[in-house]
């Protein structure tokens, strides 16, 4: 009786935790997407002048501009080459991230889970505020993750019970053989 109660209660607990976790997915992905956009806009403003120079002098190639800075006889240009390269690298990085985050929520969520930009992910985690949105999308994600966790936990319990049953049967069969 107590075991049946605990099993039913654990199911509700797992489902509830899964629902709360799943509801956070769209909100977290949205906050990550907003952070990507903010960084992309900032670095786009930072690179605009360099891009204009690259367009006019180097056929639009930022790499050629950076090479020119590095190879220049002017120490100021040589010194600034690393800074310009950093801006170019950040622009490319955030531009690629911006492109990826334009996809649908499932693709964006998968990207955040397995291949998010470490800097942006850390910032999002640090400043994330937990929400309980009651829109259809959040509830769908919540229900899906809750059901997935429930199915996985049931499969684990079933596997453990099955293994225990097999071990017990083997012990009994060995005892009868002896």
Task: Map the helices and strands.
Layout: H1 2-57, H2 62-71, H3 75-100, H4 105-115, H5 118-127, H6 136-177
Helix pairs in contact: 1-3, 1-4, 1-5, 1-6, 2-3
Question: Explain this structure to me?
Answer:
With 178 residues, the protein is mostly helical. It has one domain (2-177). It has helices spanning 2-57, 62-71, 75-100, 105-115, 118-127, 136-177. Helix 1 packs across helix 3 and helix 1 packs across helix 5. The longest helix is centred in the N-terminal third of the chain and has 56 residues, at 2-57. The protein is elongated and about 90 Å long. The model has no long low-confidence stretch (mean pLDDT 87).
Whole-angstrom Rg: 27 Å
- Domain count, please report it: 1
Distance between the termini: 36 Å
Number of strands: 0
**Largest sheet report:** none
Low-confidence stretches: none
Q: Quote the average pLDDT.
A: 87
Could you say which structural class the secondary elements and strand pairing correspond to? mainly alpha
């Amino acid at each position: 009786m107590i075991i049946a109660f605990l099993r039913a209660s654990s199911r509700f607990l797992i489902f509830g935790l899964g629902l709360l976790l799943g509801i956070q997915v769209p909100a977290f992905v949205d906050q990550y997407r907003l952070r990507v956009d903010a960084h992309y806009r900032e670095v786009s403003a930072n690179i605009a002048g360099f891009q204009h120079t690259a367009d006019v002098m180097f056929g639009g190639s930022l790499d050629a501009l950076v090479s020119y800075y590095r190879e220049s006889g002017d120490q100021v240009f040589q010194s600034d080459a690393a800074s310009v390269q950093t801006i170019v690298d950040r622009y490319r990085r955030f531009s690629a991230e911006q492109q990826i985050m334009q996809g649908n929520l499932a693709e964006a969520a998968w990207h955040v889970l397995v291949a998010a930009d470490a800097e942006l992910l850390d910032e999002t985690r640090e400043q994330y505020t937990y929400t309980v949105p009651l829109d259809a999308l959040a509830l769908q994600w919540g229900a899906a993750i809750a059901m997935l966790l429930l199915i996985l936990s049931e499969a684990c319990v079933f596997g453990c019970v099955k293994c225990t049953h097999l071990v017990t049967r083997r012990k009994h069969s060995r005892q009868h053989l002896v």
